[in-house]
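protien #1 (seq + structre)
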Amino acid sequence: MPPHEGLVHLEEYDWRDSNVALINSDIDHKVKHQSASTEPAWNNGVIGREPGLFIWRIEAFEVVPWPKEQYGSFHEGDSYIILQSERVKKAADEQGGDEDQDKLVHDIYFWLGNHTSQDEAGTAAYKTVELDEFLHGTAIQHRELQSSPSDSFSALFPRLKILRGGVRSGFTHVETNEEPRHTDTLLRIFKHPSAGAGREYVLVHEVEPTWQSLDEGDVFVLDKGDKIFVWQGKNCAPMEKLKAAQVVNDMTIAKHVEVEVLSQAESRSKVVVDYLGGGDINPLETTFKAPRPVSSATEREAKKLFRLSDSEGQLSFSLAKEGNGIGIEDLDGNDVYLLDAGRTVWVWEGRDASRAEKAMWLKVVQRYVAQQEDAAGVSFAKVSQGNEGRAFVTALQA
């Protein structure tokens, strides 16, 4: 199905407000498979056959390959689809005869920028479902929000960078950050705690080039075009300084400009503050604090496992188990389960779950996430029995 024809299905497959009555029906699978078989992005002889990382941006309802040299850079005005395919050993019960003992496992992320449009987000969601269909329904699907990156997504990009601007949407226009002349760019480099114990990721996020964007706990890179300044807050961490050095190295590969590194504790750091409009600000006497552009969902006290089942004649959603003793043995292949693991809500689809159970999972998880106090920071993902992957197993065991 050509991308523009998919518009009639945007409401049906929009993950924010979905009519899911036909999901997992025979007609649903036939429609999606036909659409997937004609989508150029998937039919290149590589997707589903070879391991690797693949990224596409949604542009005017089209799935457009993202340049490999820009992997790790995302614009807050856009929506993207990211596919990570890895080759792993087959489980003992999957191996047979002389068959290849390896298999490909897939994670699909649809990433929504804070300022992406509804049509771009809807297209990304629809095409994510389509890509999963192309991969025979074996992929783990993740909704990824710019405001709260998951651990698994952050781990894909050692140099994750969020930039302002975006492409022209089919319905709306988002200003790009590509100007005919140079405009000052200010990048904030900061630690983001993961849900795992003791682990942190360092993110790079473009912020407004004003002195109010500065924070003494982080590192900032100011690109003036003919010169680059690195401003180190007095309480910044060594890993943030290291990340800043990597960012500056990437920036200077394409252009040879002077780089000056300044600590907030030295008087010359006022040069950066002045460039950012703070002419009357003394950096030695000022406390710089700015809200983080990325939120952190708080861990809830205990994990919860819910069961979605129609085994008694009608569809029910009920708490099956609570606490940190939840294991794979608590999952029944005849049903669908929702695991609230804190920052991520997982949906596990049993191999023999009914059509009704499979059709309702999306609506159930949307309503559940919306009821959480920290819903803005909660991501969700769906796995199918036999294709769980490491992240889901870790969520169970944590």
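ok now protien #2
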Amino acid sequence: MKIKKSPGEKAFDVFNYVILAILALLCVVPFIHLLALSFSSAAAANAGKVGLWPVQPTLASYQYAFQTPNFVRAFGITVLRVVLGVSLNLILLVLTAYPLSKRNDELPGRTWISWFFIIPMFIGGGLIPTYLVVSATHLNNTIFALIIPGAVSVYNVMILLNFFRQTPKELEESARMDGASQIICLVKIYLPLAVPCLATLFVFCTVGHWNEWFSGMIYMSSVRNYPLMTYLQKVISQTNSLTDPSQIELMAKISSKTFQAAQIIIATLPILVVYPFMQRYFVQGMTLGAMKG
């Protein structure tokens, strides 16, 4: 039987929809403007004529972006960083969370080990000690300086740990009675059941690696080694990033505004493409792996 809503509840629903619609527009409109700007001509962009639709449409900004060696190199570095970094993140998360999800009688000293991971969540070593460690291990100007320092996120460990704890123990006990080892239990029982949670952590790690820019600025001394977001931060902070004299004809069709907009759109698209495929796991994984009080 369908419950009839009162006038107050209907008014509250309308109010919620209006507020959510306004917030959605505030998020989408700037991106649409940026997209229109990237496809517009230099004259229209400089004159401030571009709104939510391209003026004098052209692909010159995208053509110039893909012909810019530093941009293409930075894009490739970020793709490599995501592939290596996310793979390392997920492997270490599983190898850390699975033992910590066991009882104290199964893993002696589990409580002390857990505190070893939890304390750094609240008390960090600081930027200078971290930089000194990275320098002492000769990771500067390498892809590993972008991956290894943040390889294990304690927050993500806690999400996966709580997910493993909610897995019925009877499944593992029956497998152990049949002679299965801990590795077999992890691979055959826990990981298949943890697909929603792992998909959520995959999104977290992917977005984190793709959008992170500060470590590239700290650990890389050359623009050639910059990841994409560090390169974009440098480009956007410049008043004029069009400096290639070999492409004068193409540069005449674009401006710094359209070129920067095109680079930002290119950098944003991969995440926009990946997220819809992972969205169905996202809420489920966050709910199942939620931390309990």
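The chain has one domain: 68-288.
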